Amino acid sequence: MSARKTSRSKPNNGDKYSVLLPTYNERENLPLIVWLLVKYFDESGYKYEIIVIDDGSPDGTLKVAEQLQKIYGEDKILLRPRASKLGLGTAYIHGMKHASGNFIFIMDADLSHHTHHVFPLLRKQKEGDYDLVSGTRYRGNGGVYGWDLRRKLISRGANFLTQVLLRPGASDLTGSFRLYKKKVLECLVERCVSKGYVFQMEMIVRARQLNYTVGEVPITFVDRVYGESKLGGNEIVSFVKGLLMLFVTT
Amino acid sequence: MTKLMEWLFGISVVLAAWVLVAFDPLDLSVPHTYREVAWPMPLYLLVSFGCYSLATVGYRVATFNDCQEAARELQGQIKAAKEDLRSKGLKMCN
Predict the structure, then answer these.
(1) Which of A28, A43, A217, B13 is an S-S bond match for A226, by CB 3.0 to 4.6 Å?
(2) B90–A160: do the CB atoms touch at under 8 Å?
(3) Hey, is the C-beta of B90 within 8 angstroms of any chain A C-beta?
């Protein structure tokens, strides 16, 4: 009993976790994801901060973020807005400049990633001192919600093709729920030039190339509750282009 | 070595071995039966790899978890979050 109690008490090591939330028109979702993050982190006792990088959303995401900052405090919610949409990689660089944590969580701000997976990722990282831990929809209890057969087929097909061509040593390449050591993320993000789905894939492929250790944890992916999820011909074409680029260059 | 190079290297090794056995250009006097078995091999390999791919992708699509439970849990938490945030004075609409 006492052992259990200790494990639940405040973890008093020096680790701090910075959660990067790049947003674009996430007025509905942002308060909810922040609420969930605060709830779980406060319960766990780990030190954390949430960095919102809003790319000039016309829907007023930033105003909502400012309200959240008032509610939860400026030490918990940091706002790093940018004037316009400038891509994911630069958003991470921009957000990281002011991150005080030695670990960085990246996740989508659209609620598709459930916040309670933060702790399995965190534990996995501690278990093997991994440089990066990636959430995977393709293993164990991992999975998706709200995908039709077509979407599943494209996802599995693309994943299989990538596994065959690149042998990346990770099962979910396009997933965007990951935990990085800050130094590792800084190093990787500088090397990655792709956009969209390919960006996350490039991050993990380059991580392998640089001999970083990668851990994996099954996660569930609940497709956008608010707003639209997109997977059209354009996304598929740019994915294939990105895959070939990585095939030739890594 | 890039992945492309690895692939090209692998393919050329297999191809060279195949040419060696199937056509015997170096006059190693490979038995006739070996040569007969060897020459349609690339086609067999291709077909079986295709079958393997289809079966794997099909199996993975069929066993892709549908996370009903996670979606339900999330809906419940969204409700709780909205109520709590409203009580803390957050205005969702401007």
Answers:
(1) A28
(2) no
(3) yes
Could you give the 3-state DSSP secondary structure of residue A74? coil
pLDDT score, position A228: 59
Containing structural domain, residue B26: 3-64
Taking the CA atoms of residue A52, residue A54, residue A59 and residue A62 in that order, the dihedral angle to the nearest 10 degrees is 50
A37 CB neighbours in chain B (<8 A) are none
Q: Which residues of B touch A141 (CB under 8 A)?
A: 65
Q: How many CB pairs under 8 A join A and B?
A: 94
Contacts of A246 in chain B (CB under 8 A): 3
Predicted ipTM of the assembly: 0.88
Provide the CATH number for the domain formed by A11-249 in this structure.
Answer: 3.90.550.10
Q: What is the pLDDT of residues A168-226, one digit of tens each?
A: 989 999 998 999 999 999 999 988 888 777 899 999 999 999 999 999 999 999 987 66
Contact A67 B91 (CB under 8 A): yes
The answer to whether position B9 is within a domain reads: yes
pLDDT tens digits along A53-90: 999 999 999 999 999 999 999 999 999 999 988 888 88
**Looking at the 3D structure of chain B, how many domains does it have?**
1
CA-based nearest residue in chain B for residue A245: B4
pLDDT-derived band at A163, boundaries 50, 70, 90: very high
Q: How many CB atoms neighbour CB A151 within 10 A?
A: 16
Q: Inter-chain contact A35–B84, Cβ cutoff 8 Å? A: yes
Q: What is the bridge-based pairing of β-strands A103-106 and A16-23? A: parallel
Instruction: Report the alpha-carbon distance of residue A201 to residue A188 in Å, rounded.
Output: 12
**Among candidates B7, B60, B70 on the partner chain, residue whose Cβ is nearest the Cβ of A156:** B60
Q: Which residue, among B78, B4, B55, has the nearest Cα to A250 in the 3D structure?
A: B4
Tell me whether residue B70 is in a domain. no
CB atoms < 10 A from the CB of A89, how many?
A: 19
Diameter of chain A measured on Cα atoms: 57
Angle between helices A149-166 and B41-62 (to 10 degrees): 130
B67/A222 CB distance under 8 A: yes
